[in-house]
Design brief:
2 domains, two-stranded antiparallel ribbon, alpha+beta, single chain, 98 residues, 43% helix
């Protein structure tokens, strides 16, 4: 199915307001997630390929509130109060959450 530029823009605006990952939002709306992700990247002028992610490596304090995600031997501590944009960037860099 083909969508007009206006329809794509409405989907993209809805996604930004939803706070969901592009993948989850596309599935919810019945869109092909790979296609929707391409729309999002095109809209922000991103080029296809790998994205460089800068990480600050420091052990979390044992009493710091937040969330600890463990997957495949990797541990990610997400501190309480992290903004939704930063959290979305982390999840998208990890390939989304299903």
């Amino acid at each position: 199915m083909q969508f007009s530029k206006e329809e794509k823009a409405k989907f993209l605006e809805g996604w930004k307001k939803s706070g969901k990952s592009a993948w989850a939002y596309a599935k919810e709306k019945g869109l092909i997630p790979q296609t929707f992700t391409r729309w999002a990247k095109t809209a922000i002028g991103a080029k296809p390929g790998f994205a460089e992610v800068t990480a600050q490596i420091r052990p979390p304090a044992t009493n710091t509130p937040g969330l600890l995600i463990e997957k495949g031997g990797m541990k990610i501590h997400i501190p309480q109060g992290l903004g939704c944009n930063e959290l979305r960037a982390i999840f998208e860099a990890l390939g989304g959450i299903s």
